[in-house]
Amino acid sequence: MEGSVELSVPTSKGYLGVRTVRGGESVPLSILFGEGKLITTAVTMDTVRAFAIPSAFLLRLCLTRPDIGVQVYRIAAELFGTRYGATLVKLIEAMDGAASDAHLWAGA
Questions:
Q1: Can you tell me the distance from the alpha carbon of 83 to that of 48, in angstroms, rounded to the nearest whole number?
Q2: pLDDT of 14-42, one tens digit each?
Q3: What contacts 68, CB < 8 A, 6 or more positions away?
Q4: Which of 8, 63, 69, 92 would give a disulfide with 15, using CB separation of 3.0 to 4.6 Å?
């Protein structure tokens, strides 16, 4: 992928940005773990060019070529770890902002 895409999730106060996908990354990696519900909304931040690999093909490739499958899952695990940390930072920032807005820290 080339370009940037903002991923967000709906909340009671609107959408909360949880991650920005940048050039060289892939989205979504969740297809590697079978069927599931995607919960993020994607909005392009600039011009984006991407190509798609059908999930059934990628999963079949991982199963029939274990050498490729191991590398795909190793890289996916590293990306998930990095993304998890970045998501936690964004959530903490959002919570800090909500706490300030609600004056929860007044007089502390």
A1: 20
A2: 888 888 888 877 767 766 766 666 778 88
A3: 61, 62
A4: 8
Report the distance separating Cα 95 and Cα 60, nearest Å: 41
What pTM was estimated for this model as a whole?
Answer: 0.58
Q: Which helix (H) or strand (E) holds 21?
A: strand 14-21
In 3-state terms the chain splits into helix, strand, coil percentages (rounded to 5) of 45, 20, 35
Rounded CA gap, 87 and 104, in Å?
23
Classify 22 as helix, strand or coil.
coil
Q: Which residues contact 99 (CB under 8 A, 6 or more apart)?
A: 105
